[in-house]
TrEMBL record:
GO terms for molecular function: hydrolase activity. Coiled coil: none annotated. It comes from Sphingomonas glacialis. Keywords: Hydrolase. The keyword Hydrolase applies. This is Cell wall hydrolase.
């Protein structure tokens, strides 16, 4: 073999051995197995609008709001009707004798002359008799016509209710008349058409419906 050929063979062998040694080094193997130019995945923080919606069960029951109860009083408003705790409260709540119309004057006069010394329930029962008569069809229509009907109420003079001086009993009679006309309290003699004093004995054959104070009431 010539000298040049030997030199070429040695150079070739040297590069071959170097290549084998390089492939066997750990560092080079790690570089081969490592991904090159591959960006690592970035973790994206979740913002509130990216959070998955969590469905909450919806109640189908109606929502009930309970208002605080107000303390009870003698008078409670319910629409256009005023309900009173007692008859005394109903009478006390009425305005005075000012601005009275004819119907109220006739009713108050009858209560005053017939029952001013009676309990309030007895005064209301007298007013109930007058109202029942005015609606019955057997007596004149209207409160004043019933009160001034001849032969019915002895206090009537010349077809008129006498004038009454203002006093406490008359103011009470006016208030009871207002209660009766407004139907603001139920009378224990709600269907009565007649009444008389206990001391009287008219000899009626009628059904008694109430006995209040010094009066007996019949239908």
């Amino acid at each position: 073999m010539s000298f040049s050929n030997r030199v070429a063979s040695i150079v070739t062998l040297t590069f071959t051995v170097a290549a084998l040694i390089g492939f066997g080094t750990p560092g080079f193997a790690q570089e081969i197995n490592r991904a090159i130019n591959v960006p690592t995945a970035l973790s994206v923080p979740q913002t509130p609008h990216m959070m998955p919606a969590i469905a909450t069960p919806q109640s189908t029951d109606p929502v009930t709001t309970t208002a605080p109860e107000s303390p009870e009083s003698d008078a409670e408003q319910d629409g256009d009707t005023v309900a009173y705790g007692t008859l005394d409260a109903a009478v006390a709540a009425q305005p005075g004798p000012d601005a009275m119309n004819d119907e109220l004057q006739c009713m108050a006069g009858a209560i005053y002359f017939e029952a001013k010394g009676e309990p309030l329930s007895g005064q209301l029962a007298v007013a109930e008799v007058i109202l029942n008569r005015s609606k019955s069809g057997r007596f004149p229509k209207g409160v004043c016509s019933v009160v001034t009907q001849p032969g019915q109420f002895s206090f009537v003079r010349g077809g008129h209710v006498p004038d009454i001086a203002p006093n406490k009993q008359y103011r009470t009679a006016v208030a009871v008349a207002r209660v009766a006309l407004a139907d603001a309290w139920d009378s224990p003699a709600s269907d009565a058409m007649y009444f008389h004093a206990r001391r009287s004995a008219p000899g009626w054959h009628r059904v008694q419906v109430a006995a209040i104070g010094n009066h007996l009431f019949y239908r």
